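Prompt: I keep going back and forth on a fold encoding question. Comparing notes only helps if you start from a blank page. Show me how you would write down a chain together with its backbone fold. Please set it down just below, with no commentary around it:
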Amino acid sequence: MREETPATPYDRLRAARPELFGNTPGGIDILFDPADVEEARRTAGAGAENTGAEHAGAEGAGAEGAAAPVGVVYADRFVTLVRDAVRFPGGAPGLYVRMLSTVASPGAVVLPLTPAGDVVLVEHYRHATRSWHWEVPRGMGAPGATGAENAVRELAEEIGAEVTELISLGRMHPDSGLIGDHVELFAARIDDFGSPETSEGIRRIVPRPWPEVAEMVAAGEITCGFTIAVLTRALLNGLLLNGLPGNGLLGKGKPGNGLPGHGLPVNTTEGTGEKH
């Protein structure tokens, strides 16, 4: 039996998610011709200068070179690590690593808002940093689920809340130099919340007025990029009361004044989304 090579799952990934492999004029082109791929591997192995290796994920000097597999180099049910052969805008070939979610469903970040306009935060332990973090509920997508469905599920799982109104705040790219996926941002109006989901590493759920949350961000007490992003979007779209502390220029809307036409129907879904 022929041993499966890294290129085989790479081809499957290309077929399943072609949007991840398009080339744009003036950008970094992915190379597919075998001769071009070999040239890129040799160039990376030789440590050629000016290959574009200053980019996050780009491999130049010190890379494995001709021995480095090109294609899917690691995959589990959470993440897929891909090494592409590329040609940089300056014309030099090289290798570039990307990280993708294995499930093609957008992760969701949800800002819970109480009837009083308070922001609901969770204190969540994160293995990657070996630290406790103040965050809003978030998680990876479940197979076949939309971002809105993932958002509703995350609130139910992490804080035991039911959504009365879900407001889309668009998408964000957590690390555009390395991670190929986007997540979807939402604000959610809730009437109440439950107990912490301790099995998920959550030890506290606390409602806080927006000015206090803003001070936590300014003081570096909130360091989660997803949380800071969704708070910023909500503020700039008038969803947070009282604006910025000592400022009063932004966010002085009334409860319910979101983006026109951005309210989404709430459909509770069953799923097994993963936490990251």
Q: What stands out?
A: Confidence is low (pLDDT under 50) at residues 48-54, 246-275. The longest strand covers residues 163-172.
